[in-house]
Amino acid sequence: MKTTGPQPLETHLQQTAKVLSEALPYMRRFAGQTMVVKYGGHAMGDEALALQFARDIVLIKQVGINPIVVHGGGPQIGAMLERLKIKSEFIDGLRVTDQATVEIVEMVLAGSINKAIVTAISAAGGTGIGLSGKDGRLIEARKLRRSVRDPGSNIEKILDLGFVGEPTRINPDILRTLLNSNVIPVVAPIGIGENGETYNINADTSAGAIAAAVGASKLLMLTDVAGVLNKDKKLIPTLTAKESLVLMGDGTISGGMIPKVETCLDAVRGGVQAAHILDGRIPHVLLLELFTAHGVGTMIEKTP
To answer: Which pTM was predicted?
Structure first.
């Protein structure tokens, strides 16, 4: 009678142990580094993904990495404005923000959304502290000015977006103090003007500016796309700053991806080692990007 020895069988527990073991070199490499995570899109709107995100952020903190979360909230703002019957319009993807609208924006971003994220982090065992850019003048801002050229007359017209702002200065000291206290800062992208005005700032822009100001090693941007795609719609795993500019010039990078790539380029020019565009719809996408050999999104680095 022919007998055979035990066949190799990789159980679920063995696979888990293998993954943890393979993650160790990356945990050691990134220990002590600061990373800014821009949290938004589908990952925020899906309850299961939101809970996973909070657990992953706490895990990242637990292994010695210092995460700073900067969140958006466009859909939630839109829902509240609709509920209050306040009309809102967009120009070039930016919400025109009058006095009534900016009050709602601040209420939703710095209030309900910010505290929900902090609560989820606390439930996962971490210590989250919610901030807006007005706290400690964390994000000083000025009015964002955009222009459009009339195709008929070729005259350039300045657009008034109301209380939409852009960062002029980031105060990193308050964030460093929190990080040194074993706290996870959660930042709502509300800026403060020279005379105390409130400004609604794009979350991607805020995250990039904060990453540069605190000397973060990485900027990790969660989006609703896989990353930067080539002309054949296949993911491009890595890009240099120079290659990114070429792809924007020939139209490969277009539409809503342009401002995201521009944010990444501004961050790496500001000293961030690498910026990543990730698909936030993927469960545990941050862990996959940081602690596996291949990663899952597009990484943009400085041009050598």
So the answer is: 0.89
